[in-house]
Write a structure and sequence with these properties.
The complex is a heterodimer. By secondary structure, chain A is mainly beta. Chain A is built from no helices and eleven strands. In chain A, strand 4 and strand 5 form a beta hairpin. Classes of the chains: A mainly beta, B mainly beta.
Chain lengths: 113, 115
């Protein structure tokens, strides 16, 4: 059974810092890995989706990488801003069996002005 | 830009009462998902529809939860009777089709509090 873990659960950084959020998954047989942003009390906003054949995806100040062999993905945020404060969730879509998104518990990011 | 709509945004109900949530997916999206997210956890799939048919409801507590998508467009999720443990965010998502090559788009969610 696929399990997704995100460490740390919470992270606080000063504005302008570059930072990395980590996501690990137990089964490398995945179709894709997706990163979401969730503001307090709100729904999920998709940030980046990496297909299993890809190594990374970039959107603006965000860069996500995928290493299936080690079961890890990272989300890199450059030049962080207070507006980046939110919870970031990663989700893996397993191959075979029930093809349902498996989410981590998220990392709550606070960027201090 | 097309969005998934959900209502109500917030709902407070007493235990043993009935409650219903509504979702309108992005136009043309055949696949609709209902997720439950307990505070501090990631979302978990409750039910998946392909058009009007249920594809997966293995995690839906069928003794109290029901879901329908009668015309293959909008959907309703019902809880009767509500229990304290049902307090959570209920998220709806849609995608053009099912499968790994179609991204899911999430709505704003309904925050349920059961007292």
């Amino acid at each position: 059974k696929q399990e997704v873990t995100q460490i740390p659960a919470a992270l606080s950084v000063p504005e302008g810092e570059n930072l990395v959020l980590n996501c690990s998954f137990t089964d490398s047989a995945i179709y894709n890995l997706q990163w979401f942003r969730q503001d307090p009390g709100k729904g999920l906003t998709s940030l980046l989706l990496i297909q299993s054949s890809q190594r990374e995806q970039t959107s603006g100040r965000l860069n996500a990488s995928l290493d299936k062999s080690s079961g890890r993905s990272t989300l890199y945020i450059a030049a962080s801003q207070p507006g980046d404060s939110a919870t970031y969730l990663c989700a893996a879509l397993p191959q075979g069996g029930s093809e349902k998104l498996v989410f981590g518990k998220g990392t709550k990011l606070t960027v201090n002005p | 830009e097309a969005e998934v709509a959900q209502s109500p945004r917030y709902k407070i109900t007493e235990k043993s009462q009935a409650v219903a949530f509504w979702c309108d997916p992005i136009s043309g999206h055949a696949t609709l998902y209902w997720y439950r997210q307990i505070l501090g956890q990631g979302p978990e799939l409750l039910v998946q529809f392909q058009d009007e048919s249920v594809v997966d409801d293995s995690q839906l507590p069928k003794d109290r939860f029901s879901a329908e998508r009668l015309k293959g467009v909008d959907s309703t999720l019902k809880i009767q009777p509500a229990e304290l443990g049902d307090s959570a965010m209920y998220l709806c998502a849609s995608s053009p089709q099912a499968g790994p090559f179609y991204e899911q788009y999430f709505g704003p969610g309904t925050r349920l509090t059961v007292t």
